[in-house]
Prior knowledge:
By secondary structure, the protein is an alpha/beta fold. It has helices at about 10-20, 40-50, 60-70, 85-90, 95-115, 150-165, 200-210, 235-250, 270-280, 305-310, 315-330; strands at about 1-5, 25-30, 55, 75-80, 120-125, 135, 170-175, 180, 215-220, 230, 235, 255-260, 265, 285-290, 300. The strands form five sheets. A seven-stranded parallel sheet has the order 3-2-1-4-5-7-12, sandwiched between helices.
Amino acid sequence: MAILVTGGTGYIGSHTVVELLKNNKEVVIVDNLSNSSKDIVDKIEQITGKKCKFYEVDIRDAEDLIKVFNENEIDSVIHFAGLKAVGESVYKPLEYYDNNVIGTIKLLEVMKASGCKKLVFSSSATVYGDPGTPKYTEELGRGKASSPYGATKITIEEILENLYASDNTWTISMLRYFNPIGAHESGIIGENPNGIPNNLMPYIQKVATGELKELSIFGDDYDTKDGTCIRDYIHVVDLALGHIKALEKLEKPGIYVYNLGTGKGHSVLEIVKTFEKVNNIKLNYKIAPRRAGDLAEFFADPSKAKKELGWEAKKGIEEMCRDSWNFAKNAK
Ligand code: NAD
Ligand code: UD1
């Protein structure tokens, strides 16, 4: 029996495939390569010494997806495929709804027709909106989306709940990620976005390699310990391991939701200073105005995942910063 991983050549997907293969799982990847490349499949093989099947398929193409299901015995699906750039989603809302929401509906239709009803879905802390408290527990429920990207995640969570309500033989796990950074310890896979990055760690990486001149720290006048924003950064390998635990839980039908974060908040300046310290590098940075839409502080309450999945993040920001640079200096 195989696990289908949509978006499996992407950042989080590729790290998850590595962990699945290490656990001797059979893996089939579908990815349209819109934000990744096929050489990731070779890199996964290089790290694990194991093979997985790859299909260059867009999940919105039902015919292609049906072929994948017909050619493989797929027992469960981990669904990463989607567009994820918050800023871009504001300019291209239709593309985001089409890719993320329609793509998920197509996938669910094909799964249903094939009798495969086990799904792990990549959701995001963004679904909480602005709940008025920095510590996010699953009980807070979904808030108001701050971007079309966020709206697609909220909509998909609602679709999945509706689907389960209509047929409770499904088993669905919605994982709300906080801020994934870091890379595989081998330095072979990691995050290397095209163009100018929006997120903090990829931007820091490009300043460290000299590809970008300086980092702008968006605001130092927040009501936080050093005035810069606080987030819950989680090592991508810890995040990948959360998916393995979530898959194990798919034995019993139900709909589950889990925060995947460390439970600890770190400021932008702490990340910058830690990156400099562990990698012995000086980063050029300046304090810039606040970025619209940023919240001062939020972090996960990860206790539900610990209690129910037996999962908790192990790696700290030192390892995250070291592994990010170990990857980025080779990827340049
Ligand atoms: P990524 O862009 O690196 O990976 C997504 C992969 O999906 C890419 O390889 C892309 O080519 C593929 N893809 C996109 N649309 C597709 C389609 N229609 N058909 C087939 N393949 C398609 O992103 P990531 O950081 O690995 O994120 C994975 C998932 O996790 C996304 O759904 C994202 O929204 C979610 N997420 C990411 C973060 C983050 O900070 N990285 C945070 C919360 C949630
Ligand atoms: C962003 C998205 C969020 C998404 C997440 C993961 C926004 C408002 N939110 O979260 O929906 O789920 O990415 O993809 O875009 N920072 C700088 N300088 C930079 C870049 C970032 O100071 O050049 C700061 C930001 O102000 C923030 C922190 O670093 O305080 C982290 O930023 P980022 O990596 O973009 O993640 P989020 O904004 O938390």
